[in-house]
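Subject: Sanity check before I submit

Could someone independently write out the structure tokens for this chain? I want to compare against mine line by line before I put it in a report. The sequence has 217 residues.
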Amino acid sequence: MKKSTFWVILLLLTGCISNTLSVANYCNTAISVCESNYNILAQEIDRFKAKGGALILVNLQNNKVLNSASISSLDKFDYNHDYAYKANNLMKLFNKQQPETTAQFIQDYGHFIKQADQNELKKLRDNVTRGTARQTNIKGIKVYGLTATDYKPNNSKKVITTFMGHFIYNNKKYAIITMLDSPKGIRSTFGFNSSGWNATKLARRIVENCISKLKPK
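---
Independent answer below. Compare away.
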């Protein structure tokens, strides 16, 4: 079955094609990985009562996008390409000022990682082991990354939350970005809605899912 056909069938079965919900998917790896990642994204959007969200997974060895998915309450809208915002601490990492899309974030992060020195990598690792990205700390897997929580343009009461980082598995490096649009604080997050409470949890589930399905045969 062609992957494009697979996604059409999947979306029809899950009822995601409607006038009020926009879905965008790209899969260039095992379909089981993409299907599970999409389901995880949908579940976390629902759990945090968010307006939408996105994920991108990239093989840093060849810069190939393995999987990207975007779900939005807006009709015909893809966070990976259509939405740009300025995540302050991520922009400092890249020394940039202009807003970027999630797809551009990943490109810049990949470029940064290939030139990063040991001190820069240590900061990213420390942020996972004891910083704002602690939710992505997985035993036996080296995960590196940063979080960002930014108010939405023209709306100071809602935020966009982001985790951007990479992990090493089976001697390969994978970059990952997760994003949630307007997540709400829930009981398990003690009412907090910042990225360290939600975008990181989404990222952790994606990493764990990829590892379980990308195990060498």
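---
OP: Matches mine. For the report I'm noting this point. The chain has seven helices and six strands.
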